[in-house]
Amino acid sequence: MHRIAWLLAGLAAALPAVAQQVSLNGSMGERAALLVIDGQPRTLTVGSSHGGVKLLSVAADGARVEVGGSQLLLRIGAAPVNLGGAGAARTDSEVVLTAGPGGHFMSGGQINGKTVQFMVDTGASVVALSQAEADRIGLDYKRGPRGMTQTANGPVPVHQVVLTSVRVGGAEVYQVPAVVLPEQMPFVLLGNSFLSRFQMKQVNDTLRLEKKP
C-alpha cells in the first residue's frame, strides 16, 4: 500500500484541471455553444472540451455537458452551476476517526453514492481505487484520460477520473480527482484530493477532519 501511495504522488500534476463554475450564454444552432467556464467565455463545438467540461449536445432547451463523468443540462440565463471544487458541502461540522489495528484510520463512506471502505493515506496525492472496486460501484473510468505509473512489476496503465462526490461521515466533497489502478487493493485510499479540503488534527489515536474556513 505504501508503494502505491508513493507512486500516486507524481500523478497529481498530470490530472486534468476541472472547472469550478459553468454557465450557458448562447448557442449556434446544434453544433456549438457559448459557455462561461470559471468566468471566461469559451465557444465549444459538440464533442470538444475545456477545463474538464465537455459539450455533448445543444438543443432548444439548453446544452448538455459532461463533467467528471456526470452529465448536466445548462439553460440560457440560468445561474452558473457550481461544480464544488472549492470546498465541501457538509451536514456535520467535523469528522472524527479512531485508529484501528496497525494504527490505520479506516472509515466507511461513499463514492458517487455507493458504499466503499476508505483508508486514510496522507501520502497519496489523490483518492485511489482498484479497477475491481471501480467496476463494483459502477464508475465509468475507462473513458477517462490514461496515464502510466511504474511498479515493481513494470509500467502499469492507470485511468484518471474526477469523482462526482466523496462522502465520509456527514462530510461530502464534490469533484474529487482520483485514479483507478489495475492492482488489487483491499481499501480505497483516501488521499489528499479529499483530505486537503479539511484541517487535519491528530491526537494519539484520534483524527479530526474540520472544514477549512
Structure at a glance:
InterPro entries: Aspartic_peptidase_AS (IPR001969), Clan_AA_Asp_peptidase_C (IPR011969), Peptidase_A2_cat (IPR001995), Peptidase_aspartic_dom_sf (IPR021109), Retropepsin-like_bacterial (IPR034122). This protein has 213 residues and is mainly β.
Write the layout of secondary structure elements.
Blueprint: H1 2-8, E1 21-28, E2 32-37, E3 40-45, E4 49-50, E5 53-59, E6 62-67, E7 70-74, E8 81-82, E9 88-90, E10 94-98, E11 106-111, E12 114-120, E13 127-130, H2 131-136, E14 146-151, E15 154-168, E16 171-181, E17 188-190, H3 192-195, E18 198-203, E19 206-211
Parallel strand pairs: 12-17, 13-16
Antiparallel strand pairs: 1-2, 1-8, 2-3, 4-5, 5-6, 6-7, 9-16, 10-19, 11-12, 11-15, 14-15, 15-16, 18-19
Order of helices and strands: HEEEEEEEEEEEEEHEEEEHEE
CATH topology of the largest domain: Cathepsin D, subunit A, domain 1
Q: Give the averaged pLDDT, no decimals.
A: 81
Distance between the termini: 32 Å
Poorly predicted regions: 84-91
Q: What Rg do the Cα atoms give?
A: 18 Å
Count of the separate structural domains: 2
What's the level 1 CATH class of the largest domain?
Answer: Mainly Beta
Q: Per CATH, which architecture of the largest domain?
A: Beta Barrel
Summing up helix and strand content along with how strands pair, one would put the structural category as: mainly beta
CATH superfamily of the largest domain: Acid Proteases
Identify the overall geometry. globular
Helix content: under 10%
